Amino acid sequence: METKHYKTCSVCNIQKEATNEYFSKNGKCLNVKCKECSKEYSRLYHIANKERINKRQAAVKKEATDNLSDYYLKMKIKSDLGIVKHDDIPQELIELKRKQLKLHRYVRKEKIKNRKNK
Questions:
Q1: For residue range 27-68, what is the model confidence (pLDDT) as tens digits?
Q2: 101, part of any domain
Q3: Which of 44, 49, 56, 69 pairs as cysteine with 64 (C-beta 3.0–4.6 A)?
């Protein structure tokens, strides 16, 4: 018969079974906060830092779209073609989409430039 191991949450100080059910893993070890306290901490952090988080997410999204990252292109292909898993998208298709978007951006830039010159 297996003996149960317990761990005390560092926030709520409640002793809970030391399993993935109550504590998330932090690498190989269980986290010091129980899942409930971690979830509450995360919720409060997001409320307190909403503007900062939104700015960071916007910057990451802008970088991904500007640099045409593989992830961004996979999501673009996925939405255009209705593919369920982005793991199913071959690298060749990603490269073709990258070229297509670069060309599209170039054409749009030239159109804007021509309008300004008129």
A1: 889 999 999 999 999 999 999 999 999 999 999 889 888 889
A2: yes
A3: 69
Residues 14 and 42 sit within 8 Å (Cβ to Cβ): no
87 class by beta-carbon count within 10 Å (0-12 exposed, 13-18 middle, 19+ buried):
exposed
Rg (CA), the chain: 24
pLDDT band at residue 1 under the 50/70/90 scheme? low
The count of structural domains within the chain is 2
Q: Residue 98's closest CA among 68, 61, 71?
A: 68
* 111 inside domain: yes
Q: Are residues 113 and 70 in the same domain?
A: yes
Q: Is 52 exposed, middle or buried (0-12, 13-18, 19+ CB in 10 A)?
A: exposed
Q: How far apart are CA 69 and CA 61, in angstroms?
A: 10
Bridging pattern class, strands 29-34 and 6-8: unpaired
Domain with 86, as residue range(s), is 65-117
In the chain, beta strands by DSSP E: 6-8, 15-17, 23-26, 29-34
